């Protein structure tokens, strides 16, 4: 199961919230009434904040006061706050880069304000070194779907698609691709295919196939942090397969933003030059850097427990949907590869979204916190994320919540 989302940066919205546009209020200065979609989005966010039980409550949906309070409370644990503030990437930013390089086992790392910038720079540097500006990737990879053709428009690169199937590419597809490419880019996990990962054996074969073609390998590891359970290897061993790795600080670690590019010291130094050219030499970044260090200290060690519990939740969801007599449903993957996965149901997206909000408003339990996307006539899907709040849910809790959701979804559908 998969879909093609609108282009644009959807990853700034946590917990699978792919809605685009405003914040649910009236258009500024124009006096126009809220659309039904805006009203539903505003209700969903209010319901999520008020709900007593959720599987995930992303920190990015908190208030400014809550975010600042966390920073003030946790920052002394991760860095010496008596040292001078950073200027253009020194101080605490350098400390964060060193921490990431140590975690990933690379020679160096460079902090970037966004992952989009980090990956464009990485792929541009590799194109210069290989002499080939062609990047082979999946049709559902982030640069292809969500970056407005930035690799070609901004960086002068050319992309070729190994496959569009909702799975990782195969080694045979890499070996048999009909034209040369300088870099193989692998998104681990591949979000738009359902947060799917290869097995460790498949990943090593993919990398070997690229090496046979004299191509370098870059990992889009925005969510690499939670991939260790499925791959069965530590972060440094996973990263060692690639020539360079990008990681995000906010998708799973609840940082304020930011990313890092890790790899050989020569590549990283060149990347820092391009970072400046791309406008990424930010004057001061200590709040974002502090939040990233807090995420590495607090959230990173907990991710394996989220992945393991997501498997329990996914199984209970399947059982609950079957017991509720839903005509067709799918949890994808059946056994989640990370702590995030997709749920596909035979409802229109607005029906499923309304049912999810109603359940939260009426019971204080919000099973599905993310937005719903159309997957075809009478079919929609959402993303489910399991974090610390979700660890409290038993399989019985999940099954009961599914039953309540289905009752409301059927009632909403009958009224349409």
Can you walk me through this structure?
The protein has 416 residues and is of the alpha/beta class. The chain folds into two domains: 36-58 and 302-415, Alpha-Beta Complex (Aspartate Aminotransferase, domain 1), CATH 3.90.1150; 86-283, 3-Layer(aba) Sandwich (Aspartate Aminotransferase, domain 2). Helices cover 43% and strands 14% of the residues. It has 15 helices and 13 strands. The protein has helices spanning 36-50, 64-78, 92-104, 115-130, 142-146, 150-153, 171-176, 200-212, 228-231, 235-239, 265-277, 286-299, 303-323, 349-363, 395-415; strands at 53-54, 108-112, 134-137, 158-161, 183-187, 216-221, 244-248, 259-263, 330-332, 340-345, 365-366, 372-376, 379-385. The strands form three sheets. It has a seven-stranded mixed beta sheet with strand order 2-8-7-6-5-3-4, with helices on both faces. It is globular. It starts with 35 loop residues before the first helix and ends with a helix.
């Amino acid at each position: 199961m998969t879909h093609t989302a609108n282009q644009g940066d959807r990853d700034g919205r946590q917990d699978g919230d792919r809605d685009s546009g405003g914040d649910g209020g009236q258009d500024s200065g124009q006096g126009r009434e809220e659309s039904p979609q805006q009203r539903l989005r505003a209700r969903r966010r209010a319901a999520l904040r008020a709900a007593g039980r959720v599987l995930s409550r992303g920190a990015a949906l908190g208030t400014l006061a809550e975010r600042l309070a966390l920073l003030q409370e946790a920052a002394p644990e991760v860095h010496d706050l008596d040292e001078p503030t950073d200027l253009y990437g020194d101080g605490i930013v350098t400390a964060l880069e060193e921490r990431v390089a140590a975690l990933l086992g690379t020679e160096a790392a460079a902090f970037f304000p966004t992952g989009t910038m980090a990956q464009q720079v990485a792929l541009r540097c590799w194109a210069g070194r290989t002499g080939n500006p062609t990047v082979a990737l999946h049709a559902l990879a982030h640069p292809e779907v969500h970056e407005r053709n930035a690799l070609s428009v901004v960086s002068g690169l050319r992309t070729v698609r190994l496959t569009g199937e909702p799975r990782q590419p195969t080694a045979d597809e890499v070996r048999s691709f009909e034209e040369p490419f300088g870099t193989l880019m692998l998104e681990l996990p591949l979000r738009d295919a359902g947060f799917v990962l290869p097995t460790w054996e498949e990943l090593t074969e993919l990398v070997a196939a690229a090496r046979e073609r004299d191509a370098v390998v870059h990992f889009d590891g925005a969510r690499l942090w939670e991939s260790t359970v499925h791959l069965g290897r530590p972060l440094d061993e996973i990263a060692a397969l690639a020539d360079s790795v990008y990681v995000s600080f906010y998708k799973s670690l609840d940082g304020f933003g930011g990313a890092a590019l890790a790899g050989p010291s020569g590549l990283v130094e060149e990347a820092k030059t391009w970072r400046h050219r791309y406008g990424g030499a930010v004057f001061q970044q200590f709040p974002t850097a502090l939040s990233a260090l807090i995420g590495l200290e607090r959230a990173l060690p907990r991710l394996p427990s989220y992945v393991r519990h997501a498997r329990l939740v996914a199984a209970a969801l399947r059982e609950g949907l079957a017991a509720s007599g839903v005509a067709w449903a799918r949890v994808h993957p059946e056994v989640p590869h990370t702590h995030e996965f997709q749920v596909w149901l035979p409802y229109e997206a607005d029906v499923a979204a309304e049912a999810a909000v109603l359940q939260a408003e009426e019971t204080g339990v919000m099973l599905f916190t993310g937005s719903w996307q159309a997957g075809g006539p009478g079919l929609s899907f959402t993303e489910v994320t399991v974090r610390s709040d979700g660890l409290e849910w038993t399989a019985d809790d999940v099954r009961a919540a599914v039953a309540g959701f289905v009752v409301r979804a059927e009632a909403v559908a009958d009224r349409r």
